[in-house]
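RECORD TYPE: inverse folding
INPUT: structure tokens
STRUCTURE:
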């Protein structure tokens, strides 16, 4: 990644946005992106996002504008002095947003999971017409078979790394790997008997968007308890069940236990806005059997160097994930049951 420092940021803002920064604080940094909090000389506050991959910028800007126009609470993109919604540079691109004050809500707050499920359904419904209008969009999350198989390959790569290590995480991972693999393979075997292909064909004629990472970390709540969807970096054409399943997984991980009642609360709230067909519900349940969370935690341990200092916490999270999934699969009566 090119060095994005205060001098670079200041020049970018003054030359291309007419903003004279007074305070510049980097609040998030990943391998391919950064977010800066900017306060200008008039005390206006902005969020400046840098992306190393410029191809994402047109999508993020277009989705933000479209959803904002449809009444979905998102942070609108501020134009450059040239009227463009993002700024291309030879080492990436920048997008500027008004700063949004608020905090990330907690799933455990009374009524919050219902509010988030309803907002997700409204997001899905409002996305109707986006792709048909010729807006830029990715479709990498449409092929469930491809997604599942890619994650199965990841599990095998982690097995190779774990097999040459004697640390606690590696040993716990290896002890549960046969069950994780059995679940993943079971889901793959079920897919041909579902309506997945029919649903994928229909979405090509009536495209809808999925957020891709809908969670409390990508939602802000203001002082009036109103929610705003933030960070649309992962939006793509998608079936809605993956967003719902992802949200349900994060909720159960936060509570530390599986609850069929909470799962139903999410579904009921979502379906107030957008009812799910029996075929969609079947696929949602299948996706709940696939070990997405366990694989993600293993990836953080074996691949993501940024999590090196949190190995002990990752082990606790991984063991909690396994325990929750044992409860869930036993109660749902679907997929391979854990055997001691």
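DESIGNED SEQUENCE:
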């Amino acid at each position: 990644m090119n060095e994005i420092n205060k001098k670079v940021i200041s020049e970018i803002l003054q030359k291309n946005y007419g903003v004279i920064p007074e305070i510049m604080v980097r609040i998030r940094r990943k391998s391919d992106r950064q977010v800066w909090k900017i306060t200008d000389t008039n005390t206006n506050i902005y969020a400046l996002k840098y992306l190393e991959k410029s191809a994402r910028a047109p999508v993020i800007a277009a989705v933000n504008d479209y959803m904002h126009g449809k009444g979905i609470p998102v942070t609108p993109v501020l134009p450059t002095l040239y009227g463009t919604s993002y700024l291309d540079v030879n080492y990436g691109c920048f997008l500027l947003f008004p700063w949004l004050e608020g905090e990330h809500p907690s799933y455990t707050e009374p009524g919050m999971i219902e509010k988030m499920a309803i907002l997700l359904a409204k997001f899905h419904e409002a996305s109707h017409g986006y792709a048909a209008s010729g807006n830029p969009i990715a479709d990498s999350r449409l092929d469930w078979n491809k997604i599942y198989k890619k994650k199965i390959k990841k599990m095998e790569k982690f097995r190779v790394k774990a097999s040459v290590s004697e640390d606690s995480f590696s040993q716990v991972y290896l002890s549960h790997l046969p069950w994780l693999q059995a679940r993943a393979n079971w889901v793959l075997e079920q897919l041909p008997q579902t309506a997945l292909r029919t649903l994928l064909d229909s979405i090509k004629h009536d495209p809808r968007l999925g957020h891709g990472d809908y969670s409390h970390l990508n939602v802000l709540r203001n002082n009036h308890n109103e929610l705003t969807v933030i960070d649309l970096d992962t939006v793509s054409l998608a079936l809605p069940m993956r967003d719902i399943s992802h949200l349900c997984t994060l909720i159960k991980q936060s509570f530390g236990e599986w609850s069929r009642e909470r799962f139903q609360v999410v579904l009921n709230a979502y379906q107030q806005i957008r009812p799910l067909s029996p075929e969609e519900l079947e696929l949602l349940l299948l996706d709940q059997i696939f070990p997405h969370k366990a694989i993600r935690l293993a990836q953080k341990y074996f691949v993501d160097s940024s999590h090196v200092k949190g190995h002990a916490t990752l082990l606790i999270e991984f063991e909690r994930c396994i325990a929750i999934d044992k409860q869930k699969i036993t109660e749902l009566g679907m997929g391979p049951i854990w055997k001691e």
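NOTES: The two ends are 46 Å apart (CA to CA).
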